[in-house]
Amino acid sequence: MITIYGSSDCTWCEKAKQLAEQYELKYEYKSIKDKDNLRDLKALIPNATTIPQIIWHGRNIGGYTEFASEIENTRTVGDGQI
Fold first, then answer.
1. SS3 breakdown of the chain: % helix, strand, coil, rounded to 5?
2. Interacting residues of 51 by C-beta distance below 8 A, sequence separation 6+
């Protein structure tokens, strides 16, 4: 499962959601404008200073660029499936 912490006014957050949808990846989006989500993000990644913050299989992979790289690195060679 993928969790994307972000904000609706963040271009890279929106692009991360679009990327997940493009590859038909199941994800949960958590807006940090919700105080509970922001508190959860700070508990998970205390040193986070940017958004999006993306958690994939329980591991913080970083932001949009790292997410795109992770997708590329997990694609099955030949059939383009993840």
1. 40, 20, 40
2. 5, 6, 7, 10, 12, 13, 32, 63
Peptide bond into 52 cis (omega under 30): yes
Q: What is the pTM of this model?
A: 0.88
Instruction: Describe the strand order of the beta sheet including 27-31 as a list of residue ranges.
Output: 27-31, 2-6, 53-56, 59-62
Token pair 């929106």 is at which residue? 14
Quote the CA–CA distance of 55 and 1 in Å, as a whole number: 8
**Model pLDDT for residues 13-28, shown as the tens digit of each residue:** 999 999 999 999 999 9
Q: What is the CA radius of gyration of the chain?
A: 13
Give residue 45's identity as a one-letter amino acid code: I
Number of CB atoms found within 10 A of residue 78's CB: 6
